[in-house]
Amino acid sequence: MIDATDREDGEVLSAEDVQARLPRALGELDIVLVRSGRDEFYGELDYMGRGPGVSAEATRWLFDQGVRVMGIDAWGWDAPLYMQAERARESGEPGVFWAAHQVDLPYSQIERLCNLGALPPQGFQVACFPLRIEGASAAPARVVGIVN
């Protein structure tokens, strides 16, 4: 579990941020979850505009460590889209939107998780039960944290 509850909406975690926030060294096929605390706003109209993001660089770094499943308790893995668009407009440079989604790596991303605050920083298991939809790039899933 990476604690990002101190991050502002739209603030992006770099690979260095992720490394510094991990409670222990990663093992092959570990699942990494990012706790932002934005699940508190689940069901609110502005939920999709809240949350920090995880950079493409951090996503690649996690993948290079053997992580194949990554999740967050915000609406998306990347920063909220309207904030990405504002940054692109302010800088005058075209933006690359959903950069972490587009890293072209074979990994699974879980978004909109709830109750990550009920899990310890480490020492738990995660079971994912996705709805199998043929030809889809995403699907709803039941995700369960298991504490021994």
How many beta-strand segments? 8
Q: Which oligomerization state do the chains in this entry correspond to?
A: single chain
Q: Overall mean pLDDT score?
A: 92
**CATH homologous superfamily (4th level) name:** Putative cyclase
SS-based class: alpha/beta
Q: What is the rounded distance between the termini? A: 16 Å
CATH architecture assignment: 3-Layer(bba) Sandwich
CATH topology: Glucose Oxidase, domain 1
What does the main sheet amount to? 4 strands, parallel
The dominant shape is globular
**CATH domain class name:** Alpha Beta
Quick synopsis:
This protein is of the alpha/beta class and 148 residues long.
Q: Can you lay out the helices and strands and say which pair or pack?
A:
Elements: E1 2-3, E2 12-13, H1 15-21, E3 31-35, E4 53-54, H2 56-64, E5 69-72, H3 81-91, E6 108-110, E7 124-130, E8 141-147
Parallel strand pairs: 1-3, 2-4, 3-5, 5-6
Antiparallel strand pairs: 7-8
Helix pairs in contact: 1-2
